[in-house]
Write a structure and sequence with these properties.
The chain is mainly beta.
């Protein structure tokens, strides 16, 4: 079974607003981060820290009111990978991070969506 990646991807908010993805689309689907600690006798233990599911994105600057975007109410988001047939859902989502606009190429980085994540296949 092969693995397919890339192709046309879109982000739509529950308001109906379509946001143009530009580059990075990284998914952190787990709700925990696992790390290890070493005890004084050289044995190791595992530590689980609760985390929000996260999708990191880079988008095209659409002239958004970024204060409003970052401080707005929670929403549902749908990210569709047309080539792979995979759809990502974030419910009860909100934007996190600090947007940075590259004025040379119109790219906005520093944004992530946090919320309740699920993935479906078409």
């Amino acid at each position: 079974m092969g693995k397919d990646f890339g192709g046309k991807m879109s982000l739509r908010l529950s308001s109906g607003e379509l946001i143009s993805l530009r580059g990075t689309f990284n998914v952190s689907p787990t709700r925990q981060e696992i790390s290890s600690v070493t005890n004084q006798d050289n044995s190791t233990d595992r530590v689980s820290t609760p985390q929000a599911s996260k999708i990191e994105i880079v988008v095209a600057d659409g002239g958004f009111d970024y204060e409003k975007l970052m401080n707005g109410p929670r929403f549902n988001a749908t990210l569709v990978e047309e080539f792979t047939g995979i759809t990502h859902y974030m419910t009860n989502a909100f934007f996190v991070g600090r947007p940075q606009i590259n004025r040379l190429n119109g790219e906005v980085s520093g944004l992530s969506l946090d919320g309740d994540y699920s993935k479906g296949s078409n």
